[in-house]
Amino acid sequence: MNRTAMRASQKDFENSINQVKLLKKDPGNEVKLKLYALYKQATEGPCNMPKPGVFDLINKAKWDAWNALGSLPKEAARQNYVDLVSSLSPSLESSSQVEPGTDRKSTGFETLVVTSEDGITKIMFNRPKKKNAINTEMYHEIMRALKAASKDDSIITVLTGNGDYYSSGNDLTNFTDIPPGGVEEKAKNNAVLLREFVGCFIDFPKPLIAVVNGPAVGISVTLLGLFDAVYASDRATFHTPFSHLGQSPEGCSSYTFPKIMSPAKATEMLIFGKKLTAGEACAQGLVTEVFPDSTFQKEVWTRLKAFAKLPPNVLRISKEVIRKREREKLHAVNAEECNVLQGRWLSDECTNAVVNFLSRKSKL
Ligand SMILES: CCCCCCCCCCC/C=C/C(=O)SCCNC(=O)CCNC(=O)[C@H](O)C(C)(C)COP(=O)(O)OP(=O)(O)OC[C@H]1O[C@@H](n2cnc3c(N)ncnc32)[C@H](O)[C@@H]1OP(=O)(O)O
């Protein structure tokens, strides 16, 4: 069927908008900008916004894309949007395929492998090609996996990473997918979601253990303050480069880190971005024990299997006794951190750091 000879109806347009939300494969920034521009042109007509400042790189790229459509009629923009989405259909279809060696697994989760045996539920981050960066889908899946683990018949729950990294933290492309409501709406929604995400760790009722198989960055480090034990390979490093990214601490680390390691040591990590080796993190109290990488998996899993044979009720009860005094405080800290971060995400410092990473001008 020759779509260009047809007029896309409002229904076709709405279907295409919904299809975009279902895309499993990131179509890339160029296509996303085109989609944004065509959507705006189809719904609002020619670009009617003031040109963003030169340092507001993301909004300027969006403005440029929209403005480049000139006086293209709304109907033509609608048709072009529908055609563009239709040309992306392979990435829609790919969502149901499981390709060996990719980040996808057929476990009911796209970004995790979740298994349960020997009394242990293991939640493994599974985007090794992206160093297990946590994209929006993974945030949601981790919450789902934690909620399920809190109710299943396992005794302890373990988080770990597939591949050479534990996790490189927040996926920085999370910042590029701007909804029609704009950056303010995105920041607000993310703050709500982040608060809910961290809340799942604060409230987790069973012993929660991190098996840190390699380097850990950002939120994957800060959350460790909410775990009950942290075992690390001697290959692991612990890095919270928030200031480099124009961002402030989360995961309750503004409260847990100074308590765990002293305010001065926490400042070096959270404000100045000092990267700790596994040995240093253990000396600071963030890590429970470090193992040589060659024997890490064997030694740690032997130990965890022994833990999982302990009487289950007393483990939960003892965790509750240890944690309950802090829970309310932790929720308050979480709320405040998310609130501060919401403002940070709108700052030039944060935008420029993300754009620099995505345009490969900088890494950690
Ligand atoms: C509930 C929903 C809530 C949504 C809320 C969204 C916002 C929540 C924000 C919470 C606050 C969190 C803060 C943080 O976590 S800050 C830390 C962010 N992480 C980083 O800055 C790390 C960036 N990555 C790097 O510097 C390097 O990639 C790294 C040193 C980790 C590894 O370098 P190396 O050279 O070994 O490998 P590559 O760079 O080639 O990486 C391989 C591919 O992986 C991609 N990658 C890696 N990390 C990330 C990342 N964090 N975000 C996006 N992409 C990442 C990298 O681009 C490579 O991809 P390609 O092969 O396609 O080029």
Automatic annotation (TrEMBL):
Residues 9-94 form the ACB domain. GO terms for molecular function: delta(3)-delta(2)-enoyl-CoA isomerase activity; fatty-acyl-CoA binding. Its EC number is 5.3.3.8. It is found in: Mitochondrion; Peroxisome matrix. SUPFAM superfamilies: Acyl-CoA binding protein (SSF47027), ClpP/crotonase (SSF52096). Keywords: Acetylation, Isomerase, Mitochondrion, Peroxisome, Phosphoprotein, Transit peptide. Its main location: mitochondrion. This is Enoyl-CoA delta isomerase 2. Pathway: Lipid metabolism; fatty acid beta-oxidation. InterPro entries: Acyl-CoA-binding_prot_CS, Acyl-CoA-binding_protein, Acyl-CoA-binding_sf, ClpP/crotonase-like_dom_sf, ECH/Chromodomain_protein, Enoyl-CoA_hydra/iso, Enoyl-CoA_hydra_C, FERM/acyl-CoA-bd_prot_sf. It comes from the Eukaryota. In the C-terminal section; belongs to the enoyl-CoA hydratase/isomerase family. It is an enzyme of class 5 (isomerase). The gene is PECI. PROSITE patterns: ACB_1 (PS00880), ACB_2 (PS51228). Pfam families: ACBP, ECH_1. GO terms for cellular component: mitochondrion; peroxisomal matrix. Able to isomerize both 3-cis and 3-trans double bonds into the 2-trans form in a range of enoyl-CoA species. Has a preference for 3-trans substrates. It catalyses: (2E)-tetradecenoyl-CoA = (3Z)-tetradecenoyl-CoA; a (3E)-enoyl-CoA = a 4-saturated (2E)-enoyl-CoA; (3E)-octenoyl-CoA = (2E)-octenoyl-CoA; (3E)-nonenoyl-CoA = (2E)-nonenoyl-CoA.
